[in-house]
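Two folds, back to back.
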Amino acid sequence: MKLLKRIFSVILILCFVSGGIYLGNRVTERTVSRQKYIKFFSEQKEYDVLFYGSSHVLSGLQPMEIWDKYGITSYNLAGHAASLGMSYWVLRESLRYHKPKLAVLDIYDMYAFDQPFMDVSFMHYSLDAYPLDRLKVEAVRDLLRGRSTGEKTELLFPFSVYHSRWNEVTEQSLKESFSDDYFNPYYGSEARYGVAVPMDIDRVPSDDMVEGSEGADNYIRGFVKICEDAGVQVCFMRVPYPASVENQRAENRAMKLAEELGIEVIDMMYDVEGASELADDNDVISGVDEDQMITDNSSETGGDSAQAAGTNEMQQNANSSETGEDTAQVAGTDEMQLNADSDGTGATANNGKLSSTVVDWDTDLVDPNAHLNAYGAYKVSLFLGEWLKRVYGFTDKREDPDYANWNEDFEKVYIPALNIDMKLQSDFKTCLMLSAYPEYETELQVTEHYQPDEVCGKLIKEHGDRIIIGKYREASEGFILEPGQMACYYDMDGQTLGTEPDASTLTTPVARMIVRLRGTGEVVADKVFLQ
């Protein structure tokens, strides 16, 4: 009898300790990882597509826009500074919850450093939401091989690093820790706001590549093998960004390996003229017509993937009446050079500079060397939606009652979140960029002080007929901020840097921007830019 009591006491103590650690972890954890995955875990139906990669993917495509324009279900499982090794383990973890028809892996940074190196502080974002079990232990041991026991303990038991946050616990943080009502409204993606213009970068020939590395090659082959074993199709993609010469060389190596593995690649970093010039001696383009952006390597190895339509047709359809007026106008389709104006602002293969068919370096980047801004991600999402429909034949589920929750989330979760982000912006170019979304219509009132640069002109063109430009009419008694208006400092840097003067002290209006929801006319933002 005494033995049974002792056993019961030990079990009870273990339960209390385990429960205490669990509660302590939930109360003190940073909830960003949990919020990212809540919608992913809770979805009852299988996804069409899951996206994996680093922050280039995280901020570079928007599943809800793909849904709204094409009725294709997807989720963005990319992570901040995620290494190739992290993408491999997130794939393995995520496939225990959902088995999509297609897994898409971005090739950025595959060979940029020794895999699976990654700063442990970024690992929490990708891994904390997954439960502690044998697979997570295996992942941590692999990702942190050769590193300290403390770092491994930190990932397996986040409470060990978060326990000092007790003084940060609030009623709101407790709600976020235990309620599923607080989640990422963008289905895993994170929009970035700002406008930056990169320097010209030389385009590297496709046969100029880094040496392969055993670590990276093993993760790439492992990613493909896991998908094949799970019955999931796999392809690679290259999200457009101003890649350095060294990054281009690394990505050329990844493209070469994709060809060897028979993996299809969508490369959004080549303009069509560049593809044409390189087609004769570029292994990346093998197997497709010179006006196609899809690298259909699977066709050379007997794969069943359908040939993608030519880029010209694809882009026309992506912006056609099939997706309605909700699709943004992406200029230049007729010339098959979507990112270059007649003045040659967008770099093309003709001058040996890096460019993209999908985005414009002048308007679609949030920083000058890496990430797309929200509108650049919107363009990528439209391109991918059209490509996924044509290559994989995904059906449009927008009218399917079984997927009514997706339509509801778009209207009641995604759009309100986008509206909040619109209200928060205070930089002029950023507001022009974000209001170019087809969900909005814009009225721009300007004074004689308004002197737009070339980037502003391009951003205004993105609005198409959804923007009206008129004259700002100032009250006779001088400038007075009206109720509901937001005063903003007017400059042309494309970023809110925190060094701008206090707009409330300024009195000279330059422009007023009124952003409304299309259809309802509801005012989302009313901003006056002052100097």
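---
second:
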Amino acid sequence: MSDRPEILDLVSATPSCNPILLAHEMSGGEWIAYDHMVLMANRLDELAKTRYLATLPKNTPIEEVAPFAKECFQDPEKMKAALEKPNKVIICMPPRHGKSMFCSLYFPLYWLGLFPTTKVLLASYEADYAASWGRKVRDAISEHGSKMGRDLKIAGTSKAASRWELENFGGGMFCAGARGPITGKGADLAIIDDPIKNDEEANSQTFRDKLWDWYLSTFSTRLHKGAATVCIMTRWHEDDLVGRLIKAQDEGGDRWDIIRMPAIAEENEQYGEYTRKEGEPLCPHLIPKEMLESAKGRMGEYWYATMYQQRPFPRGGGMYRKEVVEIVDSIPPHLVQVRAWDLAASMSGKRTAGILMAKDAEGIYYVLDSVIGKWLPGDRDKVIRSTATRDGKGVAVRVEQEGGSGGIAQVHSIVRSLPGYSVEGVKVSGDKIARADPVAAQVNIGNLKFLRGPWNSALFHEMEAFPKGRYSDQIDAMSLAFDYLAVKNVFRTAIYKPSIKVRSWRDETDLLVPTRSVTNWRKEFPS
């Protein structure tokens, strides 16, 4: 459906050409633009502006282009970058921080003010709750419609709280409960606002499966081509709707822009102009840090991490004590280093992970880097080769070898592609927990450190969720690397060994090599 004429006039005429200004105006100044709300509002505003740019004919006279779009319209590179951004956004935020008020009231108002011929779909955990927001949007238009660029009015023939239309334009809003029916026309903007009501629903595998089926078969089939989608919720479970959307994205599904807002920053954050330092609360004006810390003591680690930090992990984790791991900005010289790989055979299911680990002369262990992803076998092997080149030949390479002829062939291929490197395929035995226990012991006494890097948070998350988390690829690779550095043979049977003879792997003083690329191993390890 084309709404080209209305867009050109309305965008130019609308005084509140930003949802923050509109929210302030419609609320009579009561709505406050806290920093985290500005971050959310600006990203949602980009969805609306991207729709405008996508429907703007290339031959539009520049004087007819809305002021905010002129720069992009005149710069093909900026226009291309704007249109390549995902039109699907996930926002994860703790309770009582204003997410529904903005996303389910003010943003639909803003959208319909710009695009009055379009349809907005709002779904929540119950149809009545979703309809309550539909009623608020309808009433706001009835009261303030004349301030929204054109004289917007609710059509007298269709003005129920859960389904209403705009007079003369045909656009409007319809609401539904998650897992319920969605009938009528398709949507140009679709919003899912908190599809899970409570912990009983969150912990029910049956409920989560039905919610996912509803999303795939009912919700997503109501979207018009190019529709914008917003999913905003408090996390309840690692397998909740957001968890499944992220998993589907990792496996090649729809691209989502994901904004995670923990109640207390776990690291220094920056989203565009928004910044927050580690340890700072999300919005102290709404919920101060003292209240958050009190909630943590009352709720326990599991629910606090899930609902307030937006970092769900399954019950039964806790094998690793994240809080005792020191993050350092530099490492000592003369480390024994190894890059250990846990391989995935395809792009579905598990991931390929490569952990770079080291040990110093004092027996302290360091994790220096983590490479993780889903690749086809050929692409995966290229990543392993490029990583080895970056690490240098002074870093040993260990690859977990799966059983059967396929696993042997896999290791053969990697060994052949890395001439001059110390490469060894390793069979492992015992379960994941048993293999992870030795390195967990070092972690929990504070004898393992992380070199600061962008990969830190992902590995911390996997450590916290282990052994029942969705992924354990980095843990498996870390266990393999530690086994090499600790010189234990409990879990190792060599398929390939270095062609260099050394005195003794247990003589650690002979293994202290500089952390640089070594061109001749025989000089470092005399026979």
